[in-house]
Task: inverse folding
């Protein structure tokens, strides 16, 4: 749909849409005033010397001034000028012509103008003030007589002509007002549709790029894991092999997050229960403990953003690998229970075993050495982590999402 260029005076690219609609509306009222005054000048054919030429020229100048104010980006002043002009013109018509000509009909298009000036980016008080000003003009016109404005020289015959003229004019100007405003609304609607389509396209492109990033990160993690495996083949030191395997599992926990994100329609969240199952199974298959471990997984549904998932995944990895290394001594009834619960925005991840538990006689430095990473990770997610002995070791991290 083509835009009405005369209504776009004062509108610049990138302008707030609500402000642009207000500017178009003010321009519309001003051009309608100009059109109305030009058409109204036909009254001079039968009013002759009674026609209010000077007053009409004043209103014409104010209408043009409102358009110029919009052009120079003085939009509030343009709105004020337009409303002052319309109210003043209607007030003058009500006072200048006899009541028998029904000049009050002009208040109907005036009220439509005020209603359509409402814009969400402005306070409602502006519209209330406009209505109050119009009501004040109307009340003053109704309650008081302004003899110096009235023209008693207009004949009864001319009043009859003006009555028919005012009815036709108000119907015509209201119809034109509604039509042009529908054009403005339709143009804005099509602009929003175009913008929405562009935003949807940009969003799809961003999702594709983000998915590709997650995929590349996962692949890079796989390359790092491969390099660690090559280093493991050439390493003879038991301590070095142990350290490399621990780091490989940490990389695995991060890689799993990006793998889940790559496959998930929502690229910002993962379903942590399925992530937990996959990570635990991968750790078990890679760690290969010399005893059988029975898993008791009690995992509730929990979608977790990537900012939380990676630190929590690392805590899960640390806790589970520590259990496999230290909790059991070749026993056949080894059980690891992992519980994930979510209530409102609070999430609890609990990893417990039925092994020998934490060594309560260990020195503070020895305890800190083994648990400092999990404490640090819990701090990253603004969570709390507790280590307790309850028929085995129990690690519980609680945080909010």
Result:
């Amino acid at each position: 749909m083509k835009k009405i260029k005369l209504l776009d005076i004062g509108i610049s690219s990138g302008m707030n849409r609500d402000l642009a609609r207000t500017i178009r509306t003010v321009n519309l009222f001003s051009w309608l005033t100009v059109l109305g005054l030009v058409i109204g000048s036909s009254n001079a054919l039968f009013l002759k010397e009674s026609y209010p030429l000077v007053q009409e020229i004043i209103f014409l100048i104010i209408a043009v001034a409102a358009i110029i104010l919009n052009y120079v980006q003085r939009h509030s002043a343009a709105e004020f000028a337009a409303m002052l002009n319309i109210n003043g013109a209607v007030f003058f018509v009500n006072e200048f012509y006899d009541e028998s000509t029904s000049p009050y009909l002009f208040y109907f298009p005036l009220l439509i103008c005020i209603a359509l000036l409402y814009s969400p980016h402005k306070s409602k008080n502006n519209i209330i003030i406009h209505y109050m000003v119009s009501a004040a003009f109307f009340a003053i016109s109704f309650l008081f007589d302004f003899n110096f404005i009235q023209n008693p020289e207009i004949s009864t015959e001319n009043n009859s002509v003006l009555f028919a003229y005012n009815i036709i004019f108000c119907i015509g100007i209201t119809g034109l007002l509604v039509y042009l405003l529908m054009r403005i609304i339709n143009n804005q609607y099509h602009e929003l549709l175009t913008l929405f389509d562009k935003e949807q396209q940009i969003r799809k492109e961003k999702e594709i790029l983000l998915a590709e990033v997650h995929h590349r990160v996962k692949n890079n993690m796989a390359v790092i894991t491969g390099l660690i495996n090559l280093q493991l083949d050439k390493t003879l030191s038991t301590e070095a092999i142990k350290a490399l395997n621990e780091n490989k599992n940490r990389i695995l926990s991060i890689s799993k997050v990006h793998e889940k994100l790559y496959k998930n329609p929502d690229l910002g969240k993962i379903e942590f229960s399925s992530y937990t199952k996959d990570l635990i199974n991968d750790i078990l298959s890679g760690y290969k403990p010399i005893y059988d471990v029975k898993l008791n997984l009690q995992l509730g549904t929990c979608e977790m953003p990537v900012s939380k998932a990676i630190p929590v995944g690392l805590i899960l990895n640390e806790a589970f690998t520590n259990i496999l290394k230290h909790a059991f001594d070749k026993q056949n009834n080894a059980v690891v229970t992992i519980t994930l619960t979510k209530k409102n925005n609070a999430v609890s991840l609990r990893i417990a075993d039925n092994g020998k538990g934490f060594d309560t006689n260990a020195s503070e430095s020895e305890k800190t050495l083994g648990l400092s990473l999990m404490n640090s990770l819990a701090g990253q997610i603004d969570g709390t982590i507790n280590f307790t002995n309850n028929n085995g070791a129990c690690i519980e991290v609680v945080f909010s999402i």
About this structure: Strands lie at 269-271, 293-299, 303-305, 334-343, 346-353, 384-389, 393-400. The mean pLDDT is 79. The radius of gyration is 39 Å.
